[in-house]
Amino acid sequence: MTYTKEQLETDSINKNGRPEPNVFALLPILIFLILYLGSGIYFEYISPIEGKMGFYITSVVVSFGFALTVAFLQNRKLSFDEKINVCARGIGDSNITIMLLIFLLAGAFSGIAAASGGAASTANMLLNIIPANFAVLGLFLIGCIISMAMGTSVGTITVLAPIALMAAKNGGISVPLCAGCVIGGAMFGDNLSFISDTTIAATKTMGVAMKDKFITNLKIVLPAAAVTVVTLTAVSLNAQVTQAESYSFNYILALPYFLVFILALMGLNVFIVLLIGILMFLISGLCFNTLTFASALESLGTGTSAMFETMIVTILVASISSLIKVHGGFETILQFIKTHFNSKRGGMFGIALLTSFMDVATANNTVAIVTSSPIVREISTEFGISKKISASLMDICSCIMQGIIPYGAQLLVAAGIMGISSKDIVPELYYQYILAFFVAVMILRAKNESRI
Predict the structure, then answer these.
(1) Angstrom distance (rounded) from CA 139 to CA 130
(2) Residue 335 in 3-state DSSP?
(3) pLDDT of residue 68
(4) How many CB atoms lie within 10 A of CB 355?
């Protein structure tokens, strides 16, 4: 960010052109946490409202709106118009613009994929292939594949949770265990998929190629997934299935998912990949009468509408982050990290902890990434951490926490569909805990270089 001559002459900007550390500049973040996290805890655990999820009563958009208002009221040395210009520069960043457009296409893709029956067909096809006594392992693997193709953990859980409930009842398997396997698989793809909003947010905010982040993630995720498979195989060997179930599916309806994944892996532009996927689901849905032109248009609208909140949050966070940076908030955080983490390895731990904390606070992994990314960019530069590693850490850590917190959408949706408490699922989240262990190992094994 550049500053005007007038700004450089104020006390808030030092001679090196960087804002002076100012802890009060972080007040908007505190206001957001009080409003969103505080009200969520109150309505979820202290005074719950029947039929309502406590952490979704106070909108994240409203909470960030109040935080932005506070940011505007700070630093009287800048006029209102100057602050508007600061926000405009943040929103107008090319990576933010690209991210917003991809969010729209990803929403349209998810909407038409679900409406055409492609998601259900893919899940049923895979479930028929896997032996019934390995249903627990199968649910995890199917969740991995579906979420990789769909790019959404909540969408994957919505598709698989009813099937997981049937598998649990048929095999006499623990319902929370089946739910945990579905959520683990869903978070696997949410973290890796080329069309996941977390991948889009992490790569675009850090300015790295999706393929580079994907390869970096694989080095951490694959060992964790392999250990999870071994663990769930041991669990599956003890499962006694009392009834086999056959699920209907259509190969053609499932095909677009796999094609989209292959094209994305080949490095094709994500815009083109999503457009091809939307077109294929449209054609296959019309051919097999799972879609009409009216329902196709409706599903496209529903899918894009589902992304509006994420897009508005992205705009608000870009504005708040720009103001916090100018007011000296980021310098305060950097100063804290420099004091407590004096090496490249320490900087990586700082990124992991910051992103995890933001996800716990916001209960939304995409929002956590967007909120953390401006500070993470500064940490990466300060400690010489490559941008692809920083993007990978943000994506993985946000997905780990999002797949564990009992008040997050993932656990709440699974619990609601399967008729259990979200807290019952927490002990069964094998993949998330194993992945957290491998993230720590990766950081500890990283070449450590003291900050000069």
Answers:
(1) 9
(2) helix
(3) 93
(4) 29
Mean pLDDT by 10 residues, the chain (452 residues): 44 58 87 84 83 75 90 90 91 76 79 82 71 79 83 77 73 84 92 84 88 90 94 78 63 80 69 85 91 92 83 83 83 77 85 86 77 86 90 93 82 79 86 95 77 43
Residue 304: half-sphere exposure toward Cβ, Cα within 13 Å: 13
Residue 352 is assigned to a structural domain of this protein: no
Residue 184 placed within a domain = yes
Q: What is the pLDDT of residue 451?
A: 47
Which residues form the domain of 293? 96-305
Distance, CA of 81 to CA of 50 (rounded, Å): 45
Tell me, yes or no, whether 301 lies in a domain.
Answer: yes
What was the pLDDT predicted at 6?
44
Dihedral sign from CA coordinates of 207, 211, 212, 214? positive
Q: Rounded CA gap, 89 and 192, in Å?
A: 30
Strand partners, 13: 19
Instruction: Tell me how far apart the alpha carbons of residues 108 and 297 are, in angstroms, rounded to a whole number.
Output: 10
Q: How far is CA 307 from the centre of its chain?
A: 13
Q: Quick check: is 87 in a domain? A: no
Please tell me the predicted confidence (pLDDT) of residue 437. 96
In angstroms, the first-to-last Cα distance of the chain is: 23
Alpha helices for 117-174 (secondary structure H): 118-129, 135-150, 153-171
Tokens for 230?
């071994």
Q: What is the pLDDT of residue 94?
A: 72
Please count the structural domains in the chain: 1
User: What pLDDT is recorded for position 194?
Assistant: 81
Between the alpha carbon of residue 41 and those of residues 46, 54, 125, the distances in Å are 7, 7, 40
Q: For the range 212-220, what are the long-range contacts, defined as Cβ-Cβ under 8 Å and sequence gap of 24 or more? A: 212/388, 213/388, 213/391, 213/392, 213/395, 214/265, 216/388, 216/389, 216/391, 216/392, 217/191, 217/192, 217/392, 217/395, 217/396, 218/192, 219/442, 220/392, 220/396, 220/435, 220/438, 220/439, 220/442
C-alpha closest to that of 318 among 208, 402, 205:
205
The pLDDT, as a whole number, for residue 83 is 93
Cα–Cα distance for residue pair 422/419, rounded to 1 Å: 9
| 190, 196, 199, 205 alpha-carbon torsion, rounded to 10° | -140
